[in-house]
Specification:
Length: about 325
């Protein structure tokens, strides 16, 4: 893979990449979700607006400005479509470059990786949306609009929406595009998303939805954060057989996230994967307990990577250097 330009910011946000062409298919279609590092046709993003989700007016203004900055940065490397209700376009346009296109698809929050479409190729190489139904991370957040985004994007593109039979989020699973998936059970084998389904049944649906052959599960953490510990905040596939993982230098094993992270690391190593470790930052600009300071939350677009910095100069430098070498 070619080395990429690195756009450094205060944190990574939700995005969804799109690669393919318009087609129609039925539910029996064989699908394949390409590797994330493949070249994209464009990136989809979402505009955060809901005051129940983000009640602070100042915080929401800052958040919208950050989303605009990220969209403008990505647009220097590939096309960007920002999803927002028509009544929100005027404010968004003031912050966006002319290279960012706005679509009239109403949103609530910004996490397009989770609530947006998961694009796949059919056997004839035509595009489809392999649909994981978003329900606000197990009904933890309002999602009247966000729960419809994947369907509305598929309709506007004129491509089939193929049901996976699952409720969940693409951020809760990592795929290498070459037949392997990994996930935490807590984000899928959970009554708040897929009640009545066993892990084996969920795995079968996920393998079909991604066009994969094998899956690595670890337990994760139930009920301690809104995502039930999405795997993409900890570990990411960077290519076939290679994983990047963000771990604390000194794990505190009474912390459920530290314990689960070590368990995931050990399972990935035992599975024969090449695992590259980046240390978590010890110093952070934002100290809130809900803030996820993970360097694994990067976004690779065409010729660039949107990467996080958290205020720990040493850890930031290590992370950026590792990402440059890896991506």
């Amino acid at each position: 893979m070619q080395r990429r330009t690195f756009v450094q910011g205060s944190g990574a946000l939700g995005l969804a990449s799109f690669s393919g062409e318009v087609s129609m298919a039925n539910s029996a279609t064989v699908l394949h979700v390409p590797p994330e590092e493949d070249r994209h046709e464009l990136t989809f993003m979402q505009w955060p607006v809901n005051r129940r989700v983000h009640p602070g007016r100042i915080f929401l203004d800052v958040l919208q400005g950050t989303i605009a900055d990220i969209a403008n940065s990505i647009a220097e490397f590939e096309p960007v479509i920002l999803l927002a209700a028509k009544e929100d376009h005027a404010k968004a346009r003031k912050l966006l470059s002319s290279k960012v296109e706005l679509w009239d698809i109403p949103t609530e929050d910004l996490w397009c990786r989770d609530s947006g479409p998961l694009f796949a190729k059919q056997e004839n190489e035509k595009l489809a949306v392999s649909h994981l139904q978003f329900n606000g991370w197990g009904n933890k957040q309002v999602h009247k609009r966000d729960g419809q985004i994947a369907k509305l994007v598929a309709e506007r593109l004129g491509v089939p929406l193929i049901a996976s039979g699952l409720i969940g989020e693409a951020g809760g699973i990592e795929h290498d595009g070459h037949g392997l998936l990994m996930a935490h059970e807590s984000s899928w084998v959970n009554k708040n998303r897929n009640p009545g389904l066993s892990r084996d049944e969920i795995e079968a649906h996920l393998l079909k939805a991604y066009g994969a052959e094998h899956m690595i599960w670890t337990k994760g953490v139930y009920g301690e954060d809104i995502t039930d510990y999405h795997i993409d905040s900890l570990a990411r596939f960077t290519s076939k057989g290679r994983v990047l993982i963000n771990l604390p230098d000194k794990p505190y094993l009474k912390d459920p996230f530290h314990k689960a992270a070590i368990e995931t690391h050990d399972k990935l190593v035992a599975s024969g994967l090449d695992v590259e470790v980046i240390p978590e930052p010890n110093k952070r600009r934002i100290k809130g307990c809900e803030f996820v300071a993970s360097y694994a939350n990067y976004y690779a677009c065409n010729g660039a990577v949107i990467a996080a910095q958290f205020g720990d100069k040493e850890a930031d430098a290590i992370a950026i250097d590792t990402l440059k070498k890896t991506l």
